């Protein structure tokens, strides 16, 4: 199998964690490809995924795209316990990750970001983090599964792209749980890497969790 891959993509990281957890890493050849919303579609990726997105997994059964589809295919033996709760966490994490990626694109517009859009993103990410903090007990009790994988990757993007947001100071339960996940071999082995293909952090103070004062 061949995987359209990037060390910076949170959705590719989901696939990589799943490969580690299922013991199938040696079955996949990684193909480094750069994709971004503000760049022309990458021809190599577009040839396999008409959406021009990564990850895309080339298999003997055809090409699979969307990280949840790929992860389910790789974990056919159900090494990672799944179910409605796990999939709900995965959907929340994937949706929040999409917001972070769209937010970065909005901030990079030459004419400047649309304040109504970025304001909406801020409210939603704050709500997601508050919801996850309330879910710490359930997340801790549940076995490590697809929902946890997706949440690891979402929080990894917060650390990589928004390093000044200090989310751990405001969500201590989630921070402690994330520290436990970080010690897991599959998570440690797939930490986001800046390989010099673009910028990293955003303008300081854009994403904050502190209470606003007047």
UniProtKB/TrEMBL annotation:
CDD domains assigned: GST_N_3
InterPro entries recorded: Glutathione-S-Trfase_C_sf (IPR036282), Glutathione_S-Trfase_N (IPR004045), Thioredoxin-like_sf (IPR036249)
GST N-terminal domain location: 1-82
Entry-linked PROSITE patterns: GST_NTER
Pfam families noted in UniProt: GST_N_2
Protein name per its UniProtKB record: Glutathione S-transferase N-terminal domain-containing protein
High-level lineage: Bacteria, Pseudomonadati, Pseudomonadota, Alphaproteobacteria, Rhodobacterales
